[in-house]
UniProtKB/TrEMBL annotation:
This is cyclic-guanylate-specific phosphodiesterase. Residues 568-822 form the EAL domain. It comes from Geopseudomonas guangdongensis. It catalyses: 3',3'-c-di-GMP + H2O = 5'-phosphoguanylyl(3'->5')guanosine + H(+). Its EC number is 3.1.4.52.
């Protein structure tokens, strides 16, 4: 299906719409996905950031706790030493006080006993602590926990490391101050089977050479400090609801601020959910610690909530420290910030959607505008094309000079008219019109005058017929009038009459008074042809017939005319082969000096003998040759042949002769005549001054400048130039002056009526006088009788030719004539002497 511009426009609009929609949807999808993706990424980043923050907070809290615990642990020994020193210092004060008080009042032994017994019951450290006394020999004086060993030596007493305990104590006081610490291992009260690190402080009691001291287990102090530390940790808060829990690696819960009831219990005794959490924490501890999550209930709250915890090991005490935060807080904060993000995303999406909708609306508006603009452009384009087509049609169908319909439009109207006539069973007439002797006017007065004349004639033709009739110009001076809806042939005759009358008469064209007559040929449909081609051809043939009948009339087509047209065609076809088949010959008509009767030259005239057509007159074939262009070959041949022939006679010893050769206007216009002439002269050897070229007035009437150049070139060659048929054309005088010709030939039409016809006689005399005045040779042609001859000779015509002297002769006859005349001195023999030669008839 052919695509109309409406469909095209619609498709363009829909295409643009689809494109815009696809783009909008694509962009919308892209931006939505992009923003969703960004939101997710930001959300994840946010969560990671918050989690990171919390983890950092837990980690930093743990670091602080570890530092605190480390400090506490590091202070254990110092605390222990400070405490036992204070105790021993008090014991020593007591001993000194007793000794000071009782010295001199009691015996020394009693005083000893008093001091021992005073110190024996003294206890401290929750009853764990006691004082011991040894002498410098290593004997035990007081040992409240094992009195049975009092009085015995403890010098060799060793701990599980092999350390001599007593000797260590003695070493401790072996300094000027008599005091010092000693470290050893001893059976711990909570576990009598195993020894534990213990530090003792001893002071020398000089009065009796005693060591008074006490000792304490490091583990005991450490335990206390641990308890303190746990209490400190219990009070520690991380953030809003973060706290610290401590689990011993053996599974005991040491500190659980959210569930104090669990403290001191092994995790296996706790509810399964809690067990699982603690197991996970212990697993994390075993793996070196780290972050973990679990669900745990808050204090006084049975609901389990997610918590983030960091697990870390306190290696020295086998503690697992757990700092934890409620993830609820994190979730709430995250939710808030995610909400803000979502808000941003929503507003971003809304902005994007609004922008896309706006873009869509703008694109739609733009597409509509484009569509409207294109529609307008298309409309304008169509209007322009239609106008151009109209102009083209008018241009293609009309004759540019007269604005009448041209051949194309005539053909189309004729075809239509034939169809109409067929339908209506009516007749139509085609009138083929040709202006009589228009060529002469055109050639002699120039194309501009000719064109104006044609315009005027066309105006009159158009004015003479009905507007429904078609007056057309085929070209040149040929017009065709189409008359439709005829009932009788006579109506065509009436139209032809009207045309003749309308165009007959004077025309004033640029100051020239011109007379125009027409020759009209009429062909009728259907009798003279059923198609346009035939009707045109037959009307043309009828027009030729009208011309042949003397012009200025009209003729209906007859079958006989058809035969003549055919004959014309046949002549043309056969003439094409005439040269190659040597059917052409030249005859020579002698020319004589009228005063002396001498043979001065001859005119070469073409003869054609065709095996089928027989002898064909030049009047029949020269025109055909000119129409078809064949004259170019024929004329060239005549030129070369005549020059050759004249020189041939001369070479045979016959007298030298001038020769005149006819040059057609077509030949003059197209061929490079000067070059041909030069070649003919060179080839034959004929002296240039013996060749005369006969030109018709029509030759000279054309492009004057071009003609003058050609004539000059010919003159430079030295040939003579003659004007043939003088008197039949226009403006003869101006040509004569302008072109400086050598010879003037009076047309035989003016000679034939001599001397009886006064007009022709006056004209002949005028021409002879004119030639003489211009220094030209005057030749009269067609002299048939003595009266004509005498008249012309009397009035001074120099040369003549005609049947009176001789018909055109074949080359052998001409040769015979020349032979008969003996010497051929120009202007030699008298005219009378030649008269017998007239008996030598032209065999045509
Ligand atoms: N009635 C009458 N006629 C006489 C008489 N004397 C001569 N003629 C004829 O007058 C014509 C003279 O030639 P034209 O005017 O140039 O007229 C020539 C010339 O225009 C043309 N023509 C002939 N041969 C050539 C040619 O070779 N080249 C060209 N271009 N035209 C040629 O054909 C025309 C006719 O030639 P032709 O038939 O040979 O006719 C010749 C000749 O036979 C006479 O006393 N009485």
């Amino acid at each position: 299906m052919a695509m109309t511009e409406t469909t095209l426009l619609r498709l363009q609009f829909l295409g643009m719409l689809a494109l815009v929609l696809i783009l909008t949807l694509g962009l919308g999808t892209y931006f939505t996905l992009h923003q969703t993706h960004s939101y997710r990424e930001e959300s994840a980043t946010l969560e990671a950031t918050i989690l990171g923050e919390q983890q950092a907070r837990l980690a930093s809290s743990l670091d602080t706790l570890h530092d605190q615990l480390q400090q506490i642990r590091a202070s254990t020994e110092a605390v222990l030493k400070r405490d036992i020193r204070q105790q021993v210092d008090q014991a020593l004060q007591i001993a000194h006080a007793i000794h000071a008080r009782e010295q001199g009042r009691r015996p020394e032994e009693e005083i000893r006993q008093l001091i021992v017994e005073t110190l024996r019951p003294l206890r401290f450290y929750d009853g764990r602590g006691y004082f011991f006394i040894d002498d410098l020999a290593g004997n035990c004086v007081l040992l409240p926990t094992a009195p049975e060993r009092e009085g015995s030596s403890l010098l060799d007493n060793r701990d599980d490391n092999g350390h001599y305990i007593m000797r260590g104590l003695l070493d401790a006081v072996a300094n000027p101050e008599g005091r010092g610490f000693s470290r050893y291992r001893w059976y711990a009260p909570e576990n009598p089977q195993a020894m534990a690190d213990k530090i003792a402080y001893v002071r020398l009691f000089e009065p009796f050479g005693w060591l008074i001291g006490t000792g304490e287990y490091l583990s005991t102090i450490e335990r206390e400090l641990q308890q303190q530390a746990l209490e400190q940790l219990r009070a520690t808060r991380i953030g809003l609801d973060g706290y610290v829990a401590v689990i011993h690696r053996d599974g005991r819960v040491l500190l659980s601020p959210s569930n104090p009831a669990a403290e001191g219990r092994h995790y296996s005794e706790l509810p399964p959910a809690e067990q699982a959490v603690i197991r996970a924490i212990l697993d994390a501890s075993a793996a070196g610690g780290g972050f973990t999550r679990y669900d745990w209930h808050e204090r006084n709250d049975s609901e389990l909530k997610p918590r983030l915890a960091m697990v870390s090991n306190q290696e020295d005490w086998n503690w697992v420290l757990v700092t934890s935060l409620s993830l609820d807080e994190l979730h709430v904060s995250l939710a808030k910030r995610q909400e803000r993000l979502e808000e941003n995303m929503r507003s971003g999406l809304l902005t994007t959607a609004a922008a896309l909708v706006l873009a869509l609306a703008l694109a739609l508006a733009f597409a509509l505008l484009i569509k409207r603009w294109l529609t307008r452009r298309f409309d304008q384009y169509h209007a322009d094309i239609a106008a151009s087509n109209d102009r083209l049609r008018v241009w293609a169908e009309s004759d540019p000079l007269t604005q009448l319909p041209n051949r194309t439009l005539l053909r189309s109207r004729l075809d239509g008219a034939i169809l109409n006539a067929q339908r209506e069973d009516s007749k139509l007439a085609l009138l083929f019109i040709d202006l009589d002797r228009f060529k002469n006017i055109n050639d002699s007065l120039g194309h501009a005058i000719g064109d104006n004349l044609l315009i005027e004639v066309s105006r009159r033709l158009a004015g003479a017929v009905r507007t429904s009739d078609t007056v057309s110009r085929l070209g040149g001076d040929e017009f065709v009038v189409l008359v439709e809806h005829l009932q009788q042939a006579e109506q065509a005759a009436q139209v032809a009459d009207k045309l003749l009358q309308a165009t007959n008469g004077q025309y004033d064209i640029a100051g020239h008074e011109l007379a125009v007559t027409l020759s009209i040929g009429i062909a009728l449909y259907p009798s003279d042809g059923s198609d346009a081609e035939t009707l045109l051809k037959n009307a043309d043939a009828a027009m030729y017939h009208a011309k042949a009948l003397g012009r200025n009339n009209y003729q209906f087509f007859t079958a006989a005319m058809n035969a003549r047209v055919r004959e014309h065609l046949e002549v043309e076809n056969r003439l094409r082969q005439a040269l190659s088949r040597s059917e052409l010959t030249l005859h020579y008509q002698p020319q004589f000096d009228l005063a002396s009767g001498a043979l001065v030259g001859c005119e070469a005239l073409m003869r054609w003998h065709n095996p089928i057509l027989g002898q064909v007159s030049p009047d029949k074939f020269i025109g055909v040759a000119e129409d078809s262009g064949l004259i170019l070959h024929l004329g060239e041949w005549a030129l070369f042949e005549s020059c050759r022939q004249v020189m041939d006679w001369e070479h045979q010893g016959l007298p030298g002769l001038n020769v005149a050769v006819n040059v057609s206007a077509v030949q003059f216009r197209h061929a490079d005549l000067p070059a041909q002439v030069q070649a003919a002269l060179e080839q034959s050897g004929l002296p240039a001054e013996r060749l005369e070229l006969e030109l018709t007035e029509s030759v000279l009437a054309e492009n004057r400048e071009q003609v003058r150049i050609t004539l000059d070139r010919l003159k430079q060659l030295g040939v003579r130039l003659a004007m043939d048929d003088f008197g039949t054309g226009y403006s003869s005088l101006s040509y004569l002056k302008h072109f400086k010709l050598d010879t003037l030939k009076i047309d035989r039409a003016f000679i034939s009526d001599l001397p009886g016809c006064d007009d022709h006689a006056a004209l002949a005399v005028a021409i002879i006088g004119m030639a003489e005045a211009l220094g030209m040779t005057c030749i009269a042609e067609g002299i048939e009788n003595a009266d004509q001859h005498d008249f012309l000779r009397w009035h001074g015509c120099a040369v003549g030719q005609g049947f009176l002297f001789s018909r055109p002769l074949s080359a052998p006859d001409m040769a015979a004539l020349l032979e008969r005349r003996g010497e051929a001195a120009p202007h030699g023999a008298p005219a009378a002497a030649l008269r017998p030669a007239a008996a030598v008839a032209d065999r045509d």
